[in-house]
Specification:
single chain, about 70 residues, mainly alpha, 1 helix, about 90% helix
Length: about 70
């Protein structure tokens, strides 16, 4: 009940700074996780388009064979 000491006055700013640093760390970790998910989705889309291109190239490469077969008939 007497005069507050310097140790009691320094505890509050320390608690506040720890809470703020924890909140900033939480926001940073959330941002990193979201960024990684976005990059993973972008890579999946690129892979899907690559697969489509491969199938279309295979189909395009078979057209001359089909024409040659039809000319024989």
């Amino acid at each position: 009940m007497g005069i507050p000491t310097t140790t009691n006055l320094n505890i509050q700013p320390l608690k506040i700074s720890i809470i703020i640093m924890g909140f900033l760390a939480l926001i940073s970790i959330t941002g990193i996780i979201i960024n990684n998910k976005i990059i993973a989705r972008k890579n999946q889309v690129a892979q899907a388009f690559g697969s489509i291109e491969i199938y279309l190239k295979k189909r395009f490469d078979l057209i001359p064979n089909l024409i040659a077969l039809l000319n024989k008939l």
